[in-house]
Amino acid sequence: MALGLIFLFSLCFTLCFAGNVSYDSRSLIINGERKLLISAAIHYPRSVPAMWPELVKTAKEGGVDVIETYVFWNVHQPTSPSEYHFDGRFDLVKFINIVQEAGMYLILRIGPFVAAEWNFGGIPVWLHYVNGTVFRTDNYNFKYYMEEFTTYIVKLMKKEKLFASQGGPIILSQVENEYGYYEGAYGEGGKRYAAWAAQMAVSQNTGVPWIMCQQFDAPPSVINTCNSFYCDQFKPIFPDKPKIWTENWPGWFQTFGAPNPHRPAEDVAFSVARFFQKGGSVQNYYMYHGGTNFGRTAGGPFITTSYDYEAPIDEYGLPRLPKWGHLKELHKAIKLCEHVLLNSKPVNLSLGPSQEADVYADASGGCVAFLANIDDKNDKTVDFQNVSFKLPAWSVSILPDCKNVVYNTAKVTSQTALVEMVPDNLQQKDGSKALKWEVFVEKAGIWGEPDFMKNGFVDHINTTKDTTDYLWYTTSIVVGENEEFLKEGRHPVLLIESMGHALHAFVNQELQGSASGNGSHSPFKFKNPISLKAGNNEIALLSMTVGLPNAGSFYEWVGAGLTSVRIEGFNNGTVDLSHFNWIYKIGLQGEKLGIYKPEGVNSVSWVATSEPPKKQPLTWYKVVLDPPAGNEPVGLDMLHMGKGLAWLNGEEIGRYWPRKSSVHEKCVTECDYRGKFMPDKCFTGCGQPTQRWYHVPRSWFKPSGNLLVIFEEKGGDPEKITFSRRKMSSICALIAEDYPSADRKSLQEAGSKNSNSKASVHLGCPQNAVISAVKFASFGTPTGKCGSYSEGECHDPNSISVVEKACLNKTECTIELTEENFNKGLCPDFTRRLAVEAVCS
Ligand code: GAL
C-alpha cells in the first residue's frame, strides 16, 4: 500500500502542482499558458525595505512581469557558517512577498557565486579561510558549503511557499553564474564542478526549472541562458530549451576614478526588440534598478558605492527618463504581439543588405512583423508588403498587425526630464543655525596594543580578513645627524610598492601623500618626497582595500598590501625597509569602538568645535541634525571631502571618494546610439569625480536628532557637506510628425482602425504634482535638449498657448500634432516637431 500511496502522491504532485512552470523550445509555459516575459533585476540589499514596494510598482508600471534577484550569500552568513541573517535589507522573504503581492513573478539567482560587482562575488570571506578550500571547482569544502547554503535557501523558499510549484512567484532559479568563461582555467575539476552544480541544483526539487547563464556545456537538466549587450543571435545548447536572456545591461557600473558610462535608450530598446524578433521569450534587464552598494558591500577593487547602472529606475528610485518610458512603450508594443509571436513560426525576409523582416502569422489570421535596419549609419526606406517604411539606422519597427508601426526603437516618443541634486544646508532645529560639530582624531599608526610584529610584510586581506578596509603597517628608522639631506634641506624620497588597493603614508604623524591603483588594476607604486628628522622617525603606512575582487578565475587568491618600502636619498644611497621589523594594527580605533553607532558614539572623547578642522587626516566628524525638508530622495554631497566612510544613525551609507577621472579619457557630449555598444563608448564626466553624491535612504532619518558620522582619511572640508534633494525640475518631450503615435492601446482594441492616429506629445508629473508652468513650447523646427530647447526658423507662435491650454494644472496631458492644434501651413517642406518643457510642482 505504501508504494501505491507514494505513487498516487507523486502523481498528484506532478499533476496538481509541479508542471506549473514548464517549457519547450519556444517559451516558458506557466499554468499551461505560453509566456513572453519582461524581467527586471532589483537586488534587495541594494535598497531598503521601505523602497521595495515602490520600486516593484514602478517596474510593473514600466511593463515588467518578473523581478529578478541574486541571493547574496555573504550578507546572510557574514561571519560564520553557523549563523544566518535575514533582517532589514537582507530580508529576502519579505522582498519576494512584495513581488508576489504586486502580482509579479520572480527569478531567483541563487548562485551562490554572483559576481555582481559585489564584495568577493557574494561568497563569504570566511570560506576562503577554511583550510583546503578553492572556490568554484571540484573542491570538497567549496561544494559542501555551497550545497549547504543552496539547500538552506531552497528550504526557506519552500517553507514560505514561494516556488511557483507551490503557488508562489518563483518561476526559475539559477545555479552558479557565468562559469563558462572560467571553467577552462580549472581544468578537469572545472568540468566536474559545473556538472555537479547542475545536478546538485536539480536534486533540490523546487518544481521549477533551473537555469545556468553563459554555461557553454550546461547539461540538458538545466536551461543555458545568455548574458550580453545583445543576445538576438544566441541559441540554447539543446533544441528543447527556450531562448532566455538573463542579463541585458541597460548601462554599466562605475569605478572610482573612471568616467561614467552611458548606454542610450534607443540602443537598449533595439537590443530587446531584436531579441524578441529572433525568437526570444524571456528578457531580463540587469539592472532595472541598480541601487546602492551600502557599507562595504561594493566589489572591487574600486567599484563605486553607487550602483546606479544608468538603469531604467535610478539609484534613488525615480524612473529614469526617457529610458524608463521608452522601454515601457517597447514592452507595450511587444505585448501586443505576444499571442501571435508565441503561436506561429517566423518567416524571415530580406529587405536590403542590412535590413530584414521577421513575420509571424498565426492560424487565426493574426500577423506581427518586426522590421530591422541593422546598418549602423544609414537610414533606409524599405518595402514591406507593398508599403514603404522608413527605418532609421540601427532600429527596429514593430508592427503588431503587419501594417501599422506602433513603435520604432530609435524614435523616443516618451517624455524626458531634467533631474537635479538641489543642495540643502545641513541644519538643526534648535534655532541656532550653527551646527555643533565634534571631532575625534585617530593616531597615525598603532593605537592601543599592536596586533603583531613581523620582519617583512603580510598580505593585507589575509590579515584583516575583510573585517575592515584598513591595516596599519608601521616601522621606524633612525636618521643620523650627518645625513646630507638634513643639512641641505633636501627631502628623501619614499618609494612604496603595493599589490593594492590604496595607501596613505604618514611620517611622524604627518600625512606625506597617498596613492592607489587604477581602473580594476590594483597594484600601484607610491613615490613622494618626505620629511625626516635627525633621530627616530616613525613610518606609519595605512593600507586600504576598496572592495574585494568579485570575479575571475581564482579571484579569491588575489592579494593586497605592501610588498616593498624604500627610502632614497641617504648618504649611503637607498635604505630598504622591506625586511625591517613591522608592527601591525588591524582597523581603526573608532571602528573598533563602534563610534559611528548611537550605542558606541560615546566611547571616545569627542572635542566640540564651532569650526570643524579642514584638511585634517584621520578625523572622525560627528554632527546631530534634522532631515532635509520635503520628501524627495536624499544624497550626501561629498565633493569637498577626501576619502572615507559615512554613517547616518549607525546605518552604513558606505565608502565615499570623490576621486576624479582623468581629463584625458574619451568623453562625449552627444552619444550616438547607432552601432554596437561597449561600456567605453559614451563616457561623460572626464576630469570630474566619478561619484559626488551618496544615497541616504529617507527611511534612515528620524524627525530630528540624526547622528551623521564621517571618517575622513586624508582631509576635507566638512562644512561643505550638504544633503541634496533629488528633484525632477522639468519634464520635456520632443516629437516629430512622423513618429509613431504614443497612444497605442487603441490598436489592440480597434485592430488597425487607428492607422490615422497622429503623433502626440504626452506629459505626466510624478506623484501628487501638477503641471504648474510651461517653460517652452514650439511647433516647427525647434532644436536642443531638455532644459535648453530653442526655437528654429520655423515656429508657430501659438505653441505656448496650445500647450498651456491642454496641460496647465493637470497631472498629465496629451497634445496631438494636428491641424486643429497647430498651423500646419507652416514650413511644409520640413518634418515639423513639437518641443515642450514644463514644470511640475
Ligand atoms: C556579468 C555578471 C554580473 C555582473 C555583470 C556586470 O558578467 O554575471 O553579475 O557582474 O557582469 O555588471
UniProtKB/TrEMBL annotation:
SUEL-type lectin domain sequence ranges: 755-841
Gene3D superfamilies tied to this protein: 2.60.120.740, Galactose-binding domain-like, Glycosidases
Signal peptide: 1-18
GO cellular component, one term: plant-type cell wall
Documented EC number(s): 3.2.1.23
InterPro entries associated with the record: BetaGal_gal-bd, Galactose-bd-like_sf, GH, GHD, Gly_Hdrlase_35_cat, Glyco_hydro_35_CS, Glycoside_Hdrlase_35, Lectin_gal-bd_dom
Keyword Transmembrane part of the UniProt annotation: no
Location within or outside the cell: Secreted, Extracellular space, Apoplast
Reaction catalysis annotation: Hydrolysis of terminal non-reducing beta-D-galactose residues in beta-D-galactosides
Entry keyword annotation includes Transit peptide: no
One GO term of the biological process aspect: plant-type cell wall modification
Main localization category: secreted
Molecular-function GO terms, alphabetical: beta-galactosidase activity; carbohydrate binding
Assigned keywords, A-Z: Apoplast, Glycoprotein, Glycosidase, Hydrolase, Secreted, Signal
One Pfam family, short name: Glyco_hydro_35
Family, as annotated: Belongs to the glycosyl hydrolase 35 family.
Protein name (database record): Beta-galactosidase
Species assigned in the record: Populus trichocarpa
